[in-house]
Amino acid sequence: MKIGIVGPVSSGKTTFTEKMLDTLTNSCVIHADDYFYPFEVIQQKKTDYDQPDAIDVKLLYDHIKILSSGKNLLCAPKYSFDAHESVWNHTIESKEHIIIEGHMCVFLLDPSFFDLIIYIDTHDFECFQRRIKRIRDETNVVEQHFTKTLPAQKKYVEPQREHATLCVNSFEHFVFICYILFLLGK
For the chain, does the N or the C end have fewer beta carbons within 10 angstroms? Predict the structure, then answer.
């Protein structure tokens, strides 16, 4: 089963995914963020991290297909935002449930690709506050949020909500949804 976890930047997708892994034990995760092109390529393409063409979608798709076939990924990328490039030393073991987590993964891969789509619907201001806490340069975060992240969210991320099987708008629902997913895994 392929499960997509989508939602705005800093909405809690990774936290939700980690809680799902605790409950749905026969699962593996592939993070779409790990498929960002190196920063130099993103600059050459005249794009940014909030745009779909910043992600190597073909490689992401190919890796999901490998995991879906029951094979392990022995050399998967792990993107470093500090180094602005991927480190290729990550192994992902194929499991019954493949969780694909990323703010645009449904947009990038097509809704029909997934068996279940969960949209993390966190208020813009809360996402913005979380992002400021994560990044040291608050001035850059404010400018980037309003000029790049928020417009891209409206264009690419929020339309994914209409394809969601489940829409989570608060962390209080984690236990309930994890329980449902656990039942699906039985």
Answer: C
